[in-house]
Amino acid sequence: MILVALAATAFETNVVNPDAVRSMISARVSSEISAQWVPTALKIAQIEFRMSATCMSTRDSTAFFRSAIPTVSASRPPPRAPAPAVFRPASCIWPPASEWLHEGLTQAGLPAICIETRQANAAMKTMPNKTDRNDARALAQIMRTGWFRQVHVKSRQCRLWRSLLVARRTILNEMRAIENVVRAILREAGIKLGTPSRTAFADRVREMTDGDASVTPLVSPLLAILAVMLRELGRLTKQVLAIVRQEKICRRLMSAPGVGPITALAYRATIDRPERFRHSRDVGAHLGLTPARYQSGETDIQGKISRCGDELARTALYRRRIACSCAARNGQACEHGA
Fold first, then answer.
1. SS3 for 140?
2. Residue 239 has pLDDT above 50, yes or no
3. Which of 84, 71, 5 is nearest to 40 (CA)?
4. Alpha helix ranges (H) inside 74-193
5. What is the pLDDT at residue 38?
6. CB 159 within 8 Å of CB 99
7. Most-buried pick from 190, 217, 238, 266 (CB within 10 A)?
8. How many C-beta atoms surround the C-beta of residue 294 within 10 A?
9. Three-state secondary structure call for residue 334
10. CA distance linking residue 286 with residue 226, whole number of Å
């Protein structure tokens, strides 16, 4: 069985060109070996760019062949799937760009596997020199030994939902940073702004700096930027609300106390397919909400949460729990949150 691992060198690809792989093998390998090895397996790993470094090894881990093959440009359509009797690849992809590479390979009729990066990185740290050729060789060895963990690749729709939430959160974080800069500028002038709402922030600043010729030129550009960001934040929020209205699972999640549209969509985009979890308690570990354990000899520490998995959904659930705890402490009912 020949294992082929590819590592990339320039960013312009959607999928690997199976025709290029077949022509590479037929041109560089003798017909006897080609007939013996080609119908087995192709392992694709860390494909990102224009040219892909390849490494083929046999079962006894002997380096068999190394070369570079072109990949398919994003402007060209994906290749048709080859006949199963001629070419049956089993592909391994390593991020970044693993999701859309996986999608392109699947659409081309090639079975694809996405491996867990931390486990692969731990195995590849043993190499003193990091090059694309060495990466391809190491990934081929990982696939040969089977020392890898296959991970779930989310659907395109869930990836787009998460991208929407990340874009919205990015605007919120930048707005908060600009607001803090404005507060620092006003503090230099002895002005304490207080805690106005986000929509009333600019008007409050203009009211308190009216007539101050030294401060107004500094904060006016920042307030103009905040106005644009506030408008675009509203547009992204409307998109989130429109998606939640049409998604039955999100509406069902919002029936729980403290769960709003942001938390529901973040959870929905992270879980994607609930049937991939054998037990419901596995979801907490998947989101990094279970305690991490360190045990060695007489030392056995079980403390803070592991913080593995999706940080966006974990943060949303944590804030929902804090909101419900604060409401219960004040003797109020936990209403729907963000």
1. helix
2. yes
3. 84
4. 98-107, 117-124, 132-145, 156-188
5. 33
6. yes
7. 266
8. 9
9. coil
10. 36
C-alpha angle 325-326-332 in degrees, rounded to nearest 5: 95
How many C-beta atoms lie closer than 10 Å to residue 22's C-beta?
A: 17
∠74-75-79 over CA atoms, to 5°? 70
pTM of the model: 0.74
Residues 6+ apart with CB under 8 A from 162: 154, 266, 269, 270, 310, 312
Residue recorded with tokens 């520490």: 301
Residue with tokens 């570079």: 68
Beta strand pairing status for 291-296 and 299-305? antiparallel
Matching residue, tokens 């969509």:
265
Quote the CA–CA distance of 172 and 177 in Å, as a whole number.
Answer: 9
Residue pair 265/250 in contact (Cβ under 8 Å)? The answer is yes
**Mean pLDDT across the stretch 334-338?**
66
Distances (CA, A) of 193 to 175, 183, 213, 223: 16, 7, 18, 14
Q: Which residues, listed in sequence order, are joined to residue 266 by a DSSP beta bridge?
A: none
